[in-house]
Design goal:
The complex is a heterodimer.
Chain A lengths: L8 H13 L5 H12 L5 H13 L3 E6 L10 E6 L1 H18 L10
Antiparallel strand pairs in A: 1-2
Chain B lengths: L3 E5 L3 H9 L1 E3 L5 H6 L3 H13 L1 H12 L6 E5 L8 H6 L2 H18 L4 E5 L2 E5 L11 H18 L10 H10 L2 H23 L1 H42 L2
Parallel strand pairs in B: 1-3
Antiparallel strand pairs in B: 1-5, 2-4, 4-5
Helix pairs in contact in B: 1-6, 3-6, 3-7, 4-7, 8-9, 8-10, 9-10
The chains are: A mainly alpha, B alpha+beta.
Chain lengths: ~110, ~240
């Protein structure tokens, strides 16, 4: 990740979802994890568009696996966060913390 | 050695369920248990496992029990909002069914021989031979969920509504060949495994269409970005090579 370039909010949610789900991380599970934890209604297409973008950046990797009967035998794609993804996530969180340090967000004053 | 889980309800509605609870008999395997459930029971169990903070905490309490630990005390939050989704949406009869179903599942998953509800306290007892190693809470929840799904997939009497074919087709049109199978497969899996059991066929169909409609723009715009950046790269390369 280049200097000054940070992950978007949704990208961070997806990466956290990947970390939470571990080996069992694929699109549908990630979507449900985000929805359950943030109460945010998420489209599966948005999840995959974000996953694709993160993969192009080298933050995550994917592998395709055979599908199950419950999905008409269609393949599953499992995702895994890579070291650059973890570094990017930490960097984005550090940046947010640095900006928020010493502020009282509830009152909107320093 | 006996493991005892004390379940103490401070919510009056939950106490009603605990008083009604009776479960006994030899432990079943999870798959035996799942195959004996009615469709209503499956729906309730799945809803409870996914939504009820009390249910997940009961599993968690058990999971935290180490071999040799005699008692785990478990306090349900007094905040009525915690259970409002349950008491507000279900009649008393369904609520009792929920309690029996869920605690039976817990008892089965931990190899309990008896579960009895006495007033405000629920005791789950296990014998030496049947005590299992503690597992992380999420693994137990996943085990229950996976068992239900497998059981439903092979159950001959259950007819699952097919996903809306037109929606599948429309979504396929905007997806790249690489993503087509994966994304449509994810939607079908969620539709069958979670949405239909929780909301019924009609609302599940609406959910499928909504997901399809809301997915079109993100995937289409992502494809356009790729095409445009690919074309820009090709143009730049052509420009470079023309210089030589």
């Amino acid at each position: 990740m280049g200097k000054g370039e940070y992950l978007g909010a949704f990208e961070q949610l997806v990466l956290f979802g990947l970390i939470r789900l571990g080996e069992n991380a694929y699109g549908m599970k990630i979507r449900r994890e985000i929805e359950a934890r943030t109460a945010r209604d998420v489209a599966i297409g948005a999840v995959y568009a974000t996953l694709d973008r993160l993969e192009v950046k080298g933050f995550i990797s994917s592998r395709d696996a055979n599908g199950a009967e419950c999905r008409n035998g269609k393949a599953r794609r499992f995702f895994r966060i890579e070291a650059p993804g973890i570094a990017a996530l930490n960097e984005s969180r550090d940046a947010l913390r640095a900006m928020a340090r010493g502020l009282d967000p509830a009152r909107g004053v320093a | 050695m006996k493991t005892k889980v004390s379940y103490i309800n401070s919510n009056p509605n939950a106490n009603l369920a605990a008083e009604k609870l009776v479960f006994s008999g030899p432990p079943k395997s999870l798959s035996e248990f799942a195959s004996s459930l009615t469709e209503d029971q499956r729906r309730i169990l799945r809803t409870v496992v996914s939504k009820d903070p009390c249910a997940s905490r009961l599993i968690e309490s058990y999971a935290l029990t180490q071999p040799g630990t005699q008692t785990v005390r478990y306090q349900v939050s007094d905040n009525s909002a915690d259970l409002s989704w349950l008491t507000g949406g279900y009649p008393r009869q369904t609520f009792n069914l929920w309690a029996n179903t869920y605690r039976s599942a817990v008892a089965t998953s931990i190899g309990a021989t008896t579960v009895s509800g006495i007033g405000e306290t629920l005791h789950i007892s296990t014998t030496d031979q049947q005590t299992k190693q503690p597992q992380p809470a999420s693994e137990l929840s996943v085990a229950v969920e996976e068992t239900l799904r497998v059981s439903e997939a092979v159950s001959p009497e259950r007819e699952v509504a097919p996903p809306p074919q037109t929606a599948c087709y429309l979504l396929s049109l905007v997806l790249s060949p690489r993503d087509r199978e994966v994304i449509v497969g994810d939607l079908i899996e969620e539709y069958r495994s979670y949405i239909i059991p929780e909301f019924g066929d009609r609302r599940a169909s609406i959910w499928f269409w909504t997901q399809t409609a809301r997915s079109v723009w993100p995937v289409l715009s992502r494809r356009l970005v790729k095409v445009i950046s690919g074309a820009a790269l090709a143009k730049a390369l052509t420009h470079v090579f023309k210089g030589f």
